[in-house]
Amino acid sequence: MRVRVVLVRHGESRWNVEERYQGQADSGLTARGHEQAETAAAVLAARFGAADLVLSSDLPRARDTAEAYAGPAGLPVREDPRLREIDVGAWNGRTFAEVATAYPVQLAAFERGEDVRRGGGETFAELRERVWTALTEAAEEVGAGTLLAFAHGGPIRVAAAAALRVPPPGQRGFAPPVNCSLTVLDYHGPAGTHALVGYNVPTAPASAGRD
Fold first, then answer.
1. Residue 145's domain spans which residues?
2. From the candidates 19, 34, 85, 188, which is the catalytic residue?
3. Is 85 a catalytic residue?
4. Is 194 inside any structural domain?
5. CATH of the domain at 66
6. What is the SS3 assignment for 57?
7. Residues 124-140: pLDDT tens digits?
8. Phi, psi dihedrals of residue 31, rounded to the nearest 5°
9. Could you tell me if residue 104 is inside a domain?
10. How far apart are CA 164 and CA 41, in angstroms?
11. How many other CB atoms are found less than 10 A from the CB of residue 33?
12. Given its phi and psi angles, is residue 93 left (phi above 0), alpha (psi -120 to 50 degrees) or beta?
């Protein structure tokens, strides 16, 4: 079997612009984010046509990005909360500068490569398990064809690492995806050797910001 799995990061959000951690909170897309989603939708339609299955994180910034593609094509969007961004707990909504001041020890451990629970939230290992399970279940359902999944920077990084069977914390070797970028995987079944076809391919002018 071969399923083309296309991972799309959401468009620019308000907290991306304000340099705040979002995690599983949501600040909504900016006007620019909606424009990025429309641009990405046109690229997706031209390159992949009508997908066999469209998945989305249930967070509004991802769902709204998915609808820009799926709505005009008349395709349903299936929400899967397992595609949410990593939970950063008490860091949600706080600026990068505020977190650096309030949590210097935890942040330093994270920067050293330790898989800490930032803000008391999830580890990247936990994120990887739930995201890869969601994607492989959906790919097995498709069987052959194209799966589009609209998600977030963290899930896309861990999915790329999982596809290549890079041991944790292998996601640190993958640059954070830019807004509305495409990451393309070829999934070849549970025992297959998967391929990373493209990573962090921009569809619109990039904007700064983390999830």
1. 2-87+123-201
2. 85
3. yes
4. yes
5. 3.40.50.1240
6. coil
7. 999 999 999 999 999 99
8. -60, -40
9. no
10. 27
11. 27
12. left
